[in-house]
Amino acid sequence: MRKKLLIPLALMAAPTLMVAQSYDDLAQVEVLTGWRTASGEHIAAVRVTLAPGWITYWRAPGDAGIPPQFAFSSDSNITSVTPHWPVPEVFDDAGLQSIGYYDSVVFPLTIDATGVSGDIPVSGELTIGVCEEICIPVTFNFDTLLPAVGAADGTIAAALADDPLTRAEAGVGAVTCAIDPISDGLRMTTSIDVAQSGASEYVVIEPSDPRIWVSQADVTREGATLTATVEMVHPSGAPFAFDRSGVRITVLGNDGHAIDLRGCTAG
Known about the structure:
Helix content is about 5%, strand content about 55%. By secondary structure, the chain is mainly beta.
């Protein structure tokens, strides 16, 4: 039976460098060949190339963006796909904050192919938003193979190297989250013990429940403490239980650095 998986806010891909299709010359999507590792993982990538001046979005696109969504199917026993998100830029559009990429981006993919031998046929569908003065959701379809043997790809390796820093790599200390109820949800104030980079800093909060709307963060700094306050609204329109351990916090700098933090403690 052909297995189907939907990966929202993520990209899964497969390989033999090919153009899936274009949309009025605004965007092209290529599936990069990649390679199989000794541990059974397959490393592949999706490259999005945009018309000059156009952008596409990060997994948490901000106030006005469209997050990437990807679905794929395969006859092989692929069990999981882990997308990697290169450090994005923060755009200001008439006072609205958006997060994404100009011109082009490569999204590496780590695919669990443990126990699978030979080439892996994969087909799928990728939907992204492409924007200039207007935003257009476009969908690309592909049907290709993940090769059993392949050489390491410098383009994919460079994109992997552009992952945000981990908590340990960035030397981050305590990360706390104070929660207060508001009329239609919660207010969360996150305090992060991290040295100042010298660049403008932005903080993105992603709850484990994707249904929760999160406002743009109000960010301040005092010495080595970076503070970000957001309001969160659940579909119920009322205060709700919040899982601190599942929250994802990203610190973005306008100098191209980023820190990826998972979970926080009570503040």
